[in-house]
Design a protein that fits this description.
Elements lengths: L1 H5 L5 E3 L4 H11 L8 E3 L12 H8 L10 E4 L2 H9 L3 E5 L6 H6 L2 E5 L2 H6 L5 H8 L1
Parallel strand pairs: 1-2, 3-4, 4-5
Amino acid sequence: MRRVAAAGLRSALASSAKEEELAALKRILGLEDDRLDAETSSSDAEHSKPFPDIFEAALARLPGVTPAETIVIGDTPYDAEAAGRAGIRAIGMLCGGFPEADLRAAGCIAIYRDPAHLLAEFDASPLGGAAQVQ
């Protein structure tokens, strides 16, 4: 998240977890400070993934950000399907246990082993390219 902020990109945590679970996840990830521009939980979405509700709720909390300039990072095909239904591109993470073929079939435009792999390849990733456009 520090690298995303350093690139001048805005960020949102769009999770289908309940608010209490989301708070615990944020503590584990060290995201309790102001590194996020927005966040959503299951209470912000009528339907869970693969419906786009959670991503649409996150976009609503990022005024001026369009789906076309947004990239979702997820570790399931459901994340990519939901993102696609919201008009958002998706990056897939293999650390969720789904095969690369399933993530690509769901619409992922790039695949990384895990967040550390994405960080190492950030400048060449869709996120790095997005940072260069802005």
